[in-house]
Amino acid sequence: MDAKLTLKLDKQVIDKVKEYASSQRRSLSSLVESYLKSLVNTDKRESNDDDIEISPFVKSLQTGVKIPADFDYKKGYGDYLSEKYK
Predict the structure, then answer these.
(1) What is the pLDDT of residue 11?
(2) How many other CB atoms are there within 10 angstroms of residue 74's CB atom?
(3) 6, 29, 51, 78: which has the fewest Cβ within 10 Å?
(4) What's the pTM value of the predicted model, to 2 decimals?
């Protein structure tokens, strides 16, 4: 049974992933589903995190931005909007 999932991602990342999916002749949904299945598939891998290999494509998606655990995203977004519409 299929279900709908909404994700909020950076537009540049979405554009790159759409290009990649098109070049692989796959849908974006099937790419995301395959990736998520690989994360939760415990039958084929051990629980040791050192054995997990991240593909170069997935590595290229990382931004390197560290967000504190107590970050108030609502306040941050409000600050961004108030600065944007000054």
Answers:
(1) 92
(2) 8
(3) 6
(4) 0.45
